[in-house]
Design goal:
Blueprint: E1 7-10, E2 16-17, E3 33-36, H1 42-51, E4 70-71, H2 76-82, E5 86-87, E6 91-95, H3 102-115, E7 120-124, H4 129-139, E8 147-151, H5 155-165, E9 169-173, H6 190-204, E10 212-217, H7 230-234, E11 237-242, E12 249-257, E13 265-271, E14 274-277, H8 281-284, E15 298-305, E16 308-320, E17 328-330, H9 335-348, E18 356-362, H10 374-386, E19 394-396, E20 399-400, E21 406-407, H11 412-421, E22 426-430, E23 444-448, H12 451-458
Parallel strand pairs: 6-10, 6-11, 7-8, 7-9, 9-10, 17-18, 19-22, 22-23
Antiparallel strand pairs: 1-2, 1-3, 4-5, 11-12, 12-13, 13-14, 15-16, 16-18, 20-21
């Protein structure tokens, strides 16, 4: 009888070695090689493929599609990120750091679809049925009879219950805790995880009975999805949930979507009763003040998260430094970008900051990742230096070059439309910015060439 040789698979890159080594030769990561079952021989693969029922090819022009294939929830932020809802024959993976609320969100989706008449199965390998019930009593208004709970780590048992219940929607929490019978590997290993995910993929894509399945995935200490990269290639949609330390806001981000656009972001607020969808983020990321009230160090801009423009308030605090090296803290902005904007202010606008501490953050803790906020950051710093507030009906949307000149930004038209919709009166943009619908807007568009000109106009009163 031939001896079966054990393989070792890198959990980071998928590289295979015949023996265990401390460092992966392919990606250089340490202690990532894990024991895995040997790959099947070519003869066994051929026999397995011949035993499967064949699928007939079809003309692409004859394949039917439509929005009727989507399961639309009443959680608007989730629908936005997914591109309009869940596709019936889709496999999605949802991941986040511990405590972000991914299990709560999945349970809310399952209950929502159950209320709409869909049969939903929530299978957990981490929690008992009583734990899930206690969380449901806390975050849900009620539990529908169309929602089933299964607490088991056997993927074979999960697949049997999917068929027995004839579920339309399935959640597996988390995919790294399940095991398949006959796979000689520990739970969470690359072999077990890929095998379980592969079985769920076949279940979701069954043309006779398509199903929407969400796999909850664990995350590593580096805030990356645990397991092989092949797991992300296998699924249709990859959802990532994140939160800033100490903040109640949760952001849901789509990094891959075969049925919609990537880069979409949804926002939720974590409360005692679970996640609450923030359907109007523009009102959430601003401080509500009385009409005419101004505060120094505050300025407003419009950022884009996915396809949606959101109005954000940027706050700055400039104070005298009593040390040789002033403090530069950008809680929502990269420090290098903040230092660059401070240097532009000193050289191009003649504002002395070499002996000043500069601290910057955003209302709500939203991260600033695009250059369109540069002018707003500069104006919030100038407002704090002058101890003069900027009118609350004014926004700043422009990039700033090292020369101090304002630069055009992408999607300016949609940003200005959002500002006009929210009732703002003035917006500062670059002189050469193109706005085709300028005449139809009620907002005053002020075009400037340099930062110095913006400062002069904004504080002219």
């Amino acid at each position: 009888m031939a001896k079966v040789r054990t393989q070792y698979v890198c959990s980071s890159c998928g590289h295979v070695e015949s023996k265990w080594v401390g460092r992966c030769p392919a990606c250089g990561e340490w202690n990532t090689l894990e024991e895995a079952a040997p790959a099947p021989t070519s003869a066994s693969r051929t026999a397995a493929s011949l035993s499967r029922p064949g699928v007939s090819a079809a003309r692409l022009s004859e394949v039917e599609t439509g929005n009727s294939d989507r399961l639309v929830t009443r959680i608007q932020e989730f629908n936005r990120v997914m591109g309009g809802g869940l596709i019936r024959d889709s496999l999605t993976i949802l991941s986040s750091p511990p405590g972000c609320g991914k299990s709560s969100l999945a349970l809310m989706i399952a209950e929502d679809l159950a209320e709409q008449g869909c049969k939903a199965l929530y299978a957990s390998g981490e929690e008992s049925a009583s734990q899930i019930k206690r969380r449901a009593d806390r975050i849900l208004n009620g539990v529908n009879d169309n929602l089933w709970i299964l607490s088991d780590t056997s993927m074979n048992n999960v697949l049997r219950h999917i068929d027995a219940i004839d579920a339309d929607f399935v959640v597996t929490d988390s995919i790294q805790t399940f095991v398949m019978d006959g796979v000689d590997s520990r739970p969470g290993s690359p072999t077990q995880t890929m095998q379980c995910a592969g079985e769920l993929l076949h279940t979701a894509k069954d043309p006779a009975r398509p199903r929407a399945i969400i796999m909850i995935g664990q995350m590593t200490k580096e805030n990356e999805l645990a397991g092989l990269r092949a797991l992300e290639h296998m699924v249709d949609t990859v959802l990532l949930m994140d939160s800033s330390a100490g903040e109640e806001i949760r952001s849901l981000y789509c990094s891959k979507n075969r049925f919609g656009s990537t880069g979409e972001m949804g926002f939720f607020s974590m409360t005692e009763s679970g996640l609450v969808s923030i359907d109007n983020p523009s009102a959430y990321f601003m401080t509500k003040r009385e009409t005419g009230e101004t505060v120094s160090g505050s300025a407003l801009t419009v950022v884009r998260e996915g396809s949606r423009p959101i109005i954000v308030e940027i706050e700055s605090l400039v104070s005298r430094s009593f040390t040789p090296y002033p403090t530069r803290i950008g809680e929502s902005l990269k420090r290098d970008q903040l230092n660059t904007l401070v240097s532009i202010l000193e050289q191009r606008a003649d504002i002395t900051l070499f002996d000043k501490n500069v601290i910057l953050k955003t209302t709500g803790g939203l991260r600033l990742s695009e250059n369109a906020v540069s002018l707003c950051v500069i104006m919030s710093i100038v407002s704090s230096v002058f101890h003069k507030g900027i009118a609350g009906d004014t926004l700043f949307i422009a990039d700033v070059g090292l020369t101090g000149e304002l630069k055009k930004v992408p999607s300016l038209e949609s940003r200005v439309k959002e500002a006009d919709r929210m009732g703002f009166q003035r917006v500062f943009v670059a002189k050469d910015a193109v706005l085709r619908t300028h005449e139809s807007l009620h907002i005053q568009v002020i075009r400037c060439k340099t930062v110095k000109q913006v400062i002069a106009v904004a504080f002219s009163s």
